[in-house]
């Protein structure tokens, strides 16, 4: 059995080996750059670990695992362009380092290259693997579209928000786990349980991200706290604040949201205070707890010897309660 | 046997039937809009006609044929954004009608949806069909990258230009013909001959496009003449003019190219005069003739009864000598 660290190392080795030999270099440099920025390689790691539940040999699942990682990094590249984000993992984003056109075109090539990485899947599995991937990829586009539309809306409901993060974040984790099970030739029922596990894990993962922006430990989190508050990002906290605040709290919140110029630290402090008054930290933690329990229930339903589940259980817990 | 018009009608019917039922509508509206702008549906038509050389049943090739058409329209959508083109087929481009972000994200969804259309390909053919498509799609990205890089270069050679249009235009026509043969279960040697036919047809097709911008009949061509000259687009004519002009002709050409403000009609007249002095119309026509002959030689090498080749031969000739 392989641990999260084991598969992470394998993935990192394989990513370092990806080479683009065809010209023009200028098309592929932004792709290599994006892939080299790091990250935890969560999606390919989950795929390999899910595969490993059902078989010891996981090398044959490596290329599709990389396909998910390349695809995920493609979405970051295009999302950063659409969101006009200047930095990603403490490095300039592709449209800043090169140009918006480079981000568009190299992103497109990256998406196409992700499909290349599924070509080696064995005959009987190729079609279902591609169907799962394409369905997931379209859902992620839908999630990004909803996310962008939420920016200009003040009436987003919690249910709409959960559906958005299901599409934008959770389905790719679910896809990774299910695809790993498919490649490990697990029965369909097992694949479905892992898919649901991925959805709940993904929802908790994103809510934890929303929490960390406000309550994280800067030293551990690795990025500035309060970025979501400064940019009025519609997080689980802000959406619930907008839905729940009344009277003076409502006035304070809408005032800060509408200000064009402000001292960021003041705004963060003021909005955080509203969150505290409304008990949003606890509300979010409770919601994460619900998803965590659902995920653990799914894990318990798998038809796999308990000792084989230990590493996956550990990584699920770590991702849902991550501090960075 | 089906004529070009027959398959065009079939394709048009199928495109009109494409529906996107999942939300958000805003993600899919630009896709439906782009597909509804029309065009000659050359790529799916070539695929179906190539398939029809080897079997009478072509319905099973329709979905992959649509995949190529959706992909082609995706490239137009993203290229128009990168080239800042306001109009396409006399209608506003997606980034003008909606927004640059809509063009990026709906374009991404369109590329992913193109892959969806290959899912129904039968088991043994799915992998080679996808490999051909993905290789072609990456080549087209490379072609667009070269094209953009040529914009700021004055020393592009004819050979570089031919390689660029091979990648940007010809490989997709070649892919269409080869994929049609694959789906029609033609032997590999036949597939390769059709691929080469597509390359030569595509090169002639693009050179004819370059010619039409200068020497087309406005009433037939459907768009304003001289657009390439006004924008200094590196066409086969301009590249050869830059390589061949000397003395006064060179001075006139570089002067017009460097002017920031000018009367478009004056510029078109002046540059066209240089083209005439350098005999570039004849040079281009001769080159088209060379590719036409290569294409006809390929047609003659196919192991298909002559009477089955008539419709494909007609459409090849028409595309290489098209007036619009």
Keywords:
two-stranded antiparallel ribbon, 324 residues, homodimer, mainly alpha, 2 strands
Mean pLDDT of chain A: 96
Largest interface: A-B, 37 and 37 residues
% residues in beta strands of chain A: under 5%
Basic shape of chain A: globular
Helix content of chain A: over 70%
Q: Describe the strand arrangement of the main beta sheet of chain A, using strand numbers.
A: 1-2
Number of strands of chain A: 2
N-C termini distance of chain A: 26 Å
Q: How large is the count of helical segments of chain A?
A: 16
- Whole-number radius of gyration of chain A? 20 Å
Low-confidence stretches of chain A: none
Structural class given helices, strands, pairing of chain A?
mainly alpha
Compressed to H and E, one letter per element, the order of chain A equals HHHHEEHHHHHHHHHHHH
- Assembly state of the chains shown: homodimer
What characterizes the major β-sheet of chain A?
2 strands, antiparallel
């Amino acid at each position: 059995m392989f641990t999260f660290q084991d598969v992470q190392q394998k993935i990192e080795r394989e990513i370092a080996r990806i080479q683009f030999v065809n010209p023009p270099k200028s098309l592929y440099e932004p792709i290599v750059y994006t892939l080299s920025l790091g990250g935890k390689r969560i999606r390919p790691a989950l795929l390999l670990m899910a595969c490993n539940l059902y078989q010891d040999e996981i090398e044959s699942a490596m290329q599709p695992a990389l396909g998910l990682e390349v695809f995920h990094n493609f979405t970051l590249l295009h999302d950063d362009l659409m969101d006009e984000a200047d930095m990603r993992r403490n490095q300039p984003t592709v449209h800043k380092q090169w140009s918006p056109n480079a981000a568009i075109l190299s992103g497109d090539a990256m998406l196409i290259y992700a499909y290349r990485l599924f070509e080696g899947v064995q005959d009987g599995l190729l079609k279902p693997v591609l169907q799962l991937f394409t369905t997931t990829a379209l859902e992620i586009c839908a999630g990004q579209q909803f996310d962008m539309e939420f920016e200009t809306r003040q009436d987003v409901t919690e249910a709409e928000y959960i559906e958005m993060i299901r599409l934008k974040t959770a389905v790719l984790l679910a896809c990774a786990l299910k695809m790993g099970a498919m490649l490990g030739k697990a029965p369909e029922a097992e694949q479905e349980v892992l898919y649901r596990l991925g959805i709940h894990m993904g929802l908790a993962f994103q809510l934890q991200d929303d929490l960390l922006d406000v309550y994280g430990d800067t030293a551990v989190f690795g990025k500035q706290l309060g970025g979501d508050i400064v940019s009025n990002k519609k997080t689980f906290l802000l959406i619930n604040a907008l839905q729940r605040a009344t009277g003076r709290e409502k006035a304070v919140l809408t005032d800060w949201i509408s200000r064009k110029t402000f001292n960021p630290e003041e705004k963060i402090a003021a909005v955080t205070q509203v969150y505290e008054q409304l008990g949003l930290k606890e509300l979010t933690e409770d919601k994460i707890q619900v998803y965590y329990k659902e995920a653990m229930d799914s894990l318990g339903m798998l038809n796999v010897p308990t000792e084989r589940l230990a590493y996956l259980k550990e990584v699920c817990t770590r991702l849902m309660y991550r501090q960075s």
